[in-house]
Specification:
Layout (H helix, E strand, L loop, with lengths): L6 H16 L4 H8 L3 H13 L3 E4 L2 E4 L2 H21 L4
Antiparallel strand pairs: 1-2
Helix pairs in contact: 1-3, 2-3
């Protein structure tokens, strides 16, 4: 991470990416994948869960529904930008 960034936010985003790419993961498995202590991992997951970014399932944590909501908010802008580049302009 760059000096001006938040290490905690960086870890939380890395955890989200890890769950998206390799989930579902238990807290212990996520800690192992990321090289973090279980305490830090539990705190990250608790915060992400409180905000809806992750949700627990039978096999472990997975990305949460709030990410779908965020994607829906960004998607129209991405489509407009892609249309401008390709000339389709939908």
């Amino acid at each position: 991470p760059v000096a001006d960034t938040s290490k905690t936010v960086d870890l939380a985003l890395a955890a989200l990416l890890e769950l998206a790419e390799n989930g579902p993961l238990t807290p212990a498995a996520l800690a192992s994948h990321m090289g973090l202590s279980r305490t830090v991992t539990h705190r990250l997951l608790a915060t992400l869960r409180q905000r809806g970014f992750v949700t627990p399932g039978e096999a472990g944590y997975v990305p949460g529904a709030i990410l779908v909501h965020l994607a829906e908010l960004v998607q129209p802008e991405l489509r407009a930008a892609a249309g401008a580049i390709t000339g389709s302009g939908r």
